[in-house]
């Protein structure tokens, strides 16, 4: 006997993903070799690889980050073993549900200010609003609150959009001009944002990440690399997800109505399902530093694994026969989170997962509650090879009628 389906599931056809790249899918869900690179597209394979403590972080410019001149400590994203466990345990207090709830008034104030600006101007791009929100929220957590000039979000965007490919087998060859521009973007970020924050916290510690790093005797260069990591892995990804979620709900009046009139847990369930279908980071990488065995198969040291998060999140063996459809209330096997592997898993699971959903929800509900919020222009869909995820640009909305604005 078939179980009754939850209301609104599935909400449309074979796939509700806006950003799926078919060329990244193969005919098999199993591990498929490509030289020294093996791709995992099944959910259980991907989760097993991410949970394996013997596999090191790869991709996301891990090799570059580990060789930054003057840096004595690698960013926490690339740490391994006991050092990584200790650092994650110490910094987890900034991202616990209790800590994130404490950020609530700050997030509410920022969201209200942005929507008030939209109301004044009449039309704005959601991707611009979400960038400012994501950067300002994360900056408060990290401690980047003493900038010498406004425009932090654009400085971060400049070095994230530098044209690099973070795949471990990528050959990044920038022109001298592009290399100079990227170096200049990082230098501006350091001089205008990171250095002033360090100086302020050397005078007086605060409850943020930079203060903690100073207590651990991190150098300015160490703190810069950590801030770049948080900017890339946290601020930019949250920006993209907020834009995607807004676009999905603007296109689906039934989903939008269900979202804005639901309780917080139900709203979070909708956001998790949107993230499952369109994970911002669609590909994660791990490397075997020594000979190992995966799924009973012996593999040599140096083997790199590409975990295709978007494919794994649509694995019908785990997510159900309608895995490509939007269903915020789907029944999942025990231990499978509603967003699948979108926040990773294992030792390097995203520490800011709860914060990302919380701030997305607080902004989106305020935005989508307005009955006269309308879609003016559909966004273009591009891809950022540093983040290994999508970029939505130009999602323009109008708040208020043209007559009222005039």
Automatic annotation (TrEMBL):
Domain of life: Bacteria
Residue ranges of the TM segments: none
Entry keywords, A to Z: Heme, Iron, Metal-binding, Monooxygenase, Oxidoreductase, Plasmid
InterPro entries hit by this protein: Cyt_P450, Cyt_P450_B, Cyt_P450_CS, Cyt_P450_sf
Keyword Ligase part of the UniProt annotation: no
Molecular-function GO term, any one: iron ion binding
Matching Gene3D superfamilies: Cytochrome P450 (1.10.630.10)
One Pfam family hit: p450
Listed SUPFAM superfamilies: Cytochrome P450
Record's keyword annotation contains Metal-binding: yes
Record family assignment: Belongs to the cytochrome P450 family.
PANTHER family: P450, PUTATIVE (EUROFUNG)-RELATED
Name of this chain's protein: Cytochrome P450
């Amino acid at each position: 006997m078939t179980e009754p389906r939850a209301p609104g599931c599935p909400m449309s056809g074979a796939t509700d993903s806006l950003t799926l790249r078919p060329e990244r899918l193969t005919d098999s869900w199993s591990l498929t070799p490509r030289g020294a690179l093996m791709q995992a597209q099944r959910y259980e394979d991907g989760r097993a690889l991410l949970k394996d403590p013997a596999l090191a972080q790869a991709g996301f410019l891990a090799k570059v980050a580990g060789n930054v001149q003057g840096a004595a400590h690698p960013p926490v994203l690339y740490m391994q073993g006991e050092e990584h466990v200790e650092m994650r345990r110490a910094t987890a207090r900034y991202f616990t549900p209790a800590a994130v709830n404490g950020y609530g008034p700050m997030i509410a104030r920022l969201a209200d200010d942005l929507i008030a600006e939209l109301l004044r101007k009449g039309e704005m791009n959601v991707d611009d609003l979400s960038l400012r929100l994501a950067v300002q929220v994360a900056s408060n957590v990290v401690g980047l609150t003493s900038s010498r000039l406004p425009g932090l979000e654009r400085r971060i965007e400049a070095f994230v959009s530098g044209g690099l490919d973070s795949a471990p087998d990528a050959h990044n060859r920038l022109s001298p001009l592009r290399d100079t521009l990227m170096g200049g973007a990082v230098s501006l970020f350091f001089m205008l944002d990171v250095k002033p924050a360090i100086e302020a916290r050397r005078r007086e510690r605060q409850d943020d990440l930079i203060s903690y790093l100073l207590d651990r005797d991190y150098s300015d260069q160490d703190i810069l690399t950590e801030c770049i990591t948080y900017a890339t892995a946290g601020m930019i990804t949250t920006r993209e997800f907020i834009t995607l979620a807004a676009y999905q709900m603007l296109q689906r009046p039934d989903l939008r109505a269900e979202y804005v009139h639901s309780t917080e847990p139900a709203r979070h369930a909708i956001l998790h399902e949107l993230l499952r279908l369109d994970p911002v980071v669609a590909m994660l990488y791990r490397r075997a530093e020594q000979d190992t065995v995966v799924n009973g198969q012996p593999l040599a040291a140096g083997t790199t694994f590409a975990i295709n998060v978007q494919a794994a999140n649509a694995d019908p063996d785990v997510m159900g026969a309608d895995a490509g459809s939007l269903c915020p209330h789907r029944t999942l096997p025990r231990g499978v989170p509603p967003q699948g592997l979108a926040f990773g898993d294992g030792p390097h699971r995203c520490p800011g997962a709860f914060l990302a959903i919380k701030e997305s929800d607080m902004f989106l509900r305020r935005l989508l509650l307005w009955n006269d919020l309308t879609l003016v222009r559909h966004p273009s869909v591009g891809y950022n090879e540093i983040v290994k995820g999508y970029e939505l640009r130009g999602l323009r909305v109008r708040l208020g009628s043209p007559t009222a604005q005039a």
